[in-house]
Amino acid sequence: MMHLTERLRLMADxxxxxxxxxxxxxxxxxxxxxxxENKISPKVIMCDISEPSxxxxxxxxxxxxxxENILFRAGDGLEVLDFKEVDEVIIAGMGGILISEIIGNNIxxxxxxxxxxxxxxxxxxxxxxxxxxxxFCIDGSALVREGRRICEVIVAEPGSAADLSSVRKVDDPFWxxxxxxIMTDDAxxxxxAKMRIGKCERILKGxxxxxxxxxxxxxKYKEKINYFQGFI
Length: 232
What we know:
Elements: H1 6-13, E1 21-24, H2 30-37, E2 44-48, H3 51-60, E3 70-74, E4 88-94, H4 96-104, H5 107-110, E5 115-120, H6 124-133, E6 136-146, E7 149-158, H7 187-208, H8 215-229
Parallel strand pairs: 1-2, 1-4, 2-3, 4-5
Antiparallel strand pairs: 5-7, 6-7
């Protein structure tokens, strides 16, 4: 029986039972094999740009080597998948900018999949903004602890094209902590907001000496601190 970290378990819980899944950058393949072994996903495709990394997944799946529903694809991002080949796509453990690039390399193909479960290592705000302006609906976000880090998991589905005139600016603090977080009693939300405040305060401290030259930046980070304090 596969055992998952809390981060991987959270993503596994977001997969709808009976849906096929592709895991981009699968490395060891632990998450898709958990989904298959527990009969959550009847078909899993493990994808990685590195053949040696993909071999780790093959080793993990050795007991199921006779299955036609466990597939391995070596290649870059979503290029290894056909249009509509799976119901859900997982991309985890990469930077938010790289995830955006993977989705954007063929936006029509990306929009052919039913759902994305994304776990960016950084630049979460840029990823949320990118998804929104490119016609994806963000259905939810969740926080999970992994060691000393607090990670975000974002669920997005293809939707109608956004009205760009109504989309918040990319540096709006909303993209870093969406308003839905304030509606939860998750203790991680307060801790995460304090981390965001600490980051802004460090930036402000660096700007203080040249405040006259950086008045706009100074005001922006003061605004962010005020916004994040609403989650505490």
